[in-house]
């Protein structure tokens, strides 16, 4: 059972350092949202007043201005967890005549916001595959402790300079996201494990590894979640097909594309129904390698038809539930028990309270594993 939770904040223009004690003492609430497929964000609410050091000293000095880097660390029983390494994008100050109602609200996003500030057009790249182009761009952010982890794409397409020159159109973040989508990969920043560092992951979505302790519902004394619900959406999944022209008869045949990722194996025995069929538009005009990569990317986008959502108390669960990782579910019945991928987690911290809202996903029903870790 958790007996102690401690919050630490670091801030600074480039290199974050521990904030003054007055700032920590003024924290009213902290919210951090980490989700697969989108940028992570945070919001910190600080209590203030007309004579508070925040109002008289730290705000005028620019300690909490937009553009300031913020690292949020929560320590659970001596084990630090870096929840966020990001940048303040908005500052709001609200003052009230009622005692204790004045507050400063800081809103921000993870360090990918720095990659999305400057648009570039027509900037040429060396003749590199998509993974090489991503590594080339990420080198600009090593100063912020961003460590690239780039997994080569399944079907590499290296442009020949005499045929075409690959150029960048948009911000670094937009271009990296486009390369990820075209190759069935994902791109995100994972803060930590040491405050001031982040892992920039570009590669296939990994749904393998050691699962986190199970989320138990309707299990008497073993229950560790406050709520948990599931849904199966037959319209969310799509069967992607490629239209192939048979050379002799000139008859076109639709060939369904399977999911071939070894890093995202099925999490269920019975795939959920896919009621929609979608042809891969424009495949005939593309390079076959590029068309195949784009087709597999669309298959991976629509694989999750079973979703779950709920809320837990970290004190009861016994640890911090991590996003973009596997977790087991117990007590939900034969159809819904088993392993799930944690798509998003929202951390909500207040004085004496630490709760998490979460969303889960997988490809079907019926567990394909006999038991999940407790």
TrEMBL record:
This is Phage protein D.
